[in-house]
Design brief:
32% helix; 25% strand; 236 residues; Glucose Permease (Domain IIA); 11 strands; 2 domains; two-stranded antiparallel sheet
Length: 236
């Protein structure tokens, strides 16, 4: 009997220990597989930092997911500052005291539509609303360089300033002033046309599309660097 006990006890103990070791090993492997790695931690920190320094979009999304709050409207993005070159040109043009191109419109009624989107492009002009047939006047003494009809602008006038540095562009005209011709010299305030909605303008919203651009060395009437007329015709 004693001999049987000596031989069977070590076997039972070995089986029990093997079973326990198996359980411990399984738990350890499972824990290692699910523990966060250094990469996981860095990704979490990066995500948190991005949310903290972002523009609020991610934060609003997180609030929606938690149902804790309604996201606030996005802040209005201010227009990009003008370049030093354009700023100098604006100052120079202001010194000329350009006349408002639409009769009866006050400077305080102008709205800055220069940076407005027009489909896939930027407007780069000033829209001045007025009743159809309102007189359009030359903003400065200059030369009528081109009378042109285009699909977008309708009846248009390109006027060069006396130094041929700048071009003034008047578009969507209902008609030209009688007798107006290319090459004609005009004075500040001369009537050159009338407000309309030709081209791609809405018939229900007649207006003058007015643009200013700096001419290149080739003096091409259809091409130049745009300048914001709102900043020229109004005071800060």
């Amino acid at each position: 009997m004693t001999s049987d006990v000596r031989h069977h006890t070590p076997l039972a103990f070995t089986v029990a220990m093997s079973f326990l070791m198996g359980i411990v090993t399984t738990i350890a492997v499972y824990s290692l597989r699910n523990a966060p790695t250094a990469a996981d931690v860095s990704e979490v920190h990066a995500s948190t930092a991005a949310t903290a320094i972002g523009d609020g979009v991610d934060t609003a999304g997180a609030k929606d997911q938690r149902g804790a709050a309604t996201p606030e409207p996005a802040a209005t993005v201010p227009p990009a500052p003008v370049s030093p070159t354009e700023a100098g040109e604006i100052v120079a043009l202001r010194a000329r005291d350009l006349k408002l191109p639409v009769e009866g419109v006050d400077r305080k009624d102008l709205r800055n539509t220069f940076a407005d989107a027009r489909g896939s492009r930027t407007h780069e002009a000033l829209d001045i609303l007025a009743p159809r047939g309102t007189k359009v006047r030359a903003v400065e003494e200059g030369r009528v360089q081109k009378l042109f009809t285009s699909k977008a602008g309708g009846l248009t006038i390109y006027e060069f300033d006396p130094t041929q540095t700048f071009a003034y562009y008047y578009a969507h005209l209902d008609r030209y002033e009688d007798g107006l011709r290319e090459g004609q010299m005009v004075k500040r305030g001369d009537v050159i046309g009338y407000v309309g909605s030709t081209g791609n303008a809405s018939p229900d919203a007649p207006h003058l599309h007015f643009a200013i651009f700096r001419l290149g060395p080739e003096k091409q009437w259809w091409k130049g660097e745009p300048i914001n007329p709102f900043l020229v015709l109004t005071e800060d």
